Structure formats: C-alpha cells, structure tokens
C-alpha cells in the first residue's frame, strides 16, 4: 500500500549521468525517502524488491565518506554495508571488506547477482586484494560509500568493471 502511494506521488525526473556515475537531483537530495531510486534509473516494480532495503538506503544517500565511520555523520564502504545488513536483514557482518568476503559470503558469479548480494573491488593493481565493498541492488547497480559519499553506481562503469574482484552472497 505504501509503495503504491509512493509511486503515485513520485514524478519521473531526469537522471544525471556522467561516465556511468549516477548523481541525485536537488529534489532527491531534499527528500531522500521518497522515490529516490528513480533518479538512478532503477525501475522498482511493486512486490519485486525489498522495500525495507530501499527505505534504509534512502536514509543513507548522500552521507559523507569518513574512513572508519559507520554512522550517518560519515561512513566508509564496509561501515555502510554492515549497517544496512544489520538494519534490513538483522545480520552482523565483518567490519572489513576483505574479511566480509572471506568469512560472511559464498562466492557467486557476477551474472548470478541478486538484490542484497555484495560486490567486492580492488583499487590496487593486485586484483586479489579486496579493499572496497558495495551492496548490489538491481539492473547492474549497487550502493556503496566512496570518496563522494554514499552513492549508487553501475557495475558496468569502466572503473568498477575493471576493478571488480568478486561477488558474494551472504551465508
């Protein structure tokens, strides 16, 4: 019922795309809770997604990046993912992206990704060194905390495609 009202009140707006990085409009920044996903090209169909997940992500959109942080005053990538998992799935995950992959996940192929799965990256030339994590949404998009704060990006963006190391499903 809440979903229908949200979609009924949500006006389609143009998304801003720069090199496959999706940026929220000023309208979305002002009202993070209401249909924020439309600005990122995410087409949510009623009953086909986890409403609690998207509601919680909306609370985090635009939070600034802070190394070691895990609050809405500032967060890093693993801080964001641990807080989302705790709030939505009532699951406590490792606080480090590499350990999160090793201890909390079963590796899956990129083409098997489902909403709530985790995507892991390496910003170094050593592909085996995981140092970044995001939470997969739908349609090739994921939420993560990077230098621009909490944002939605596309796995097919050149940077993320090149630096993707692994995908995991939380056990």
List the helices and strands and how they pair.
Blueprint: H1 2-9, E1 16-18, E2 21-23, H2 26-30, H3 51-60, E3 70-71, E4 74-75, H4 77-89, H5 97-104, E5 105-108, E6 118-121, E7 132-136, E8 141-146, E9 149-154, H6 158-163, E10 164-170
What would the keywords be for this entry?
single chain; endopeptidase fold (from Nostoc punctiforme); two-stranded antiparallel sheet; alpha+beta; 171 residues; 10 strands
Low-pLDDT parts are: 1-24
Order of helices and strands: HEEHHEEHHEEEEEHE
Q: How many helix segments?
A: 6
Assembly of the depicted chains: single chain
Number of strands: 10
CATH architecture: Alpha-Beta Complex
Helix content: 25-40%
Determine the N-to-C terminus distance: 31 Å
Mean pLDDT: 83
**CATH topology name:** endopeptidase fold (from Nostoc punctiforme)
CATH superfamily, called what? endopeptidase domain like (from Nostoc punctiforme)
Tertiary shape:
globular
- Reading side by side through the largest sheet, how are the strands ordered? 1-2-9-8-7-6-10-5
Strand composition percent: 15-25%
Helix-and-strand structural type: alpha+beta
- What integer value in Å does the Rg equal? 15 Å
CATH class: Alpha Beta
Walkthrough of the structure:
This protein is α+β, with helices and mostly antiparallel strands and 171 residues long. Helices cover 29% and strands 25% of the residues. It has one domain: endopeptidase domain like (from Nostoc punctiforme) (endopeptidase fold (from Nostoc punctiforme)), CATH 3.90.1720. The chain has an 8-stranded antiparallel sheet with strand order 1-2-9-8-7-6-10-5. Helix 3 (51-60) runs antiparallel to helix 4. The longest helix has 13 residues, at 77-89. The chain is globular, with a radius of gyration of 15 Å. The protein starts with a helix and ends with a strand. Mean pLDDT is 83; it is low at 1-24.
């Amino acid at each position: 019922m809440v979903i229908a009202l949200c979609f009924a009140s949500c006006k389609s707006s143009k998304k801003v795309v720069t090199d496959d990085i999706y940026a929220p409009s000023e309208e979305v920044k002002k009202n993070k809770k209401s249909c924020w996903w439309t600005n990122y090209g995410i087409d949510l169909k009623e009953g086909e997604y986890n409403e609690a997940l998207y509601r919680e992500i909306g609370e985090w959109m635009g939070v600034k990046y802070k190394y070691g942080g895990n609050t809405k005053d500032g967060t890093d990538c693993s801080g964001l993912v641990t807080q989302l998992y705790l709030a939505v799935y009532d699951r406590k995950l490792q606080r480090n992206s590499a350990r999160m992959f090793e201890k909390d996940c079963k590796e899956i192929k990129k083409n098997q990704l489902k909403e709530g799965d985790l995507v892991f990256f390496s910003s170094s030339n050593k592909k085996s060194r995981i140092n970044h994590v995001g939470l997969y949404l739908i349609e090739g998009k994921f939420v993560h905390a990077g230098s621009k704060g909490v944002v939605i990006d596309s796995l097919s963006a050149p940077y993320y495609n090149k630096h993707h190391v692994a995908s995991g499903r939380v056990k």
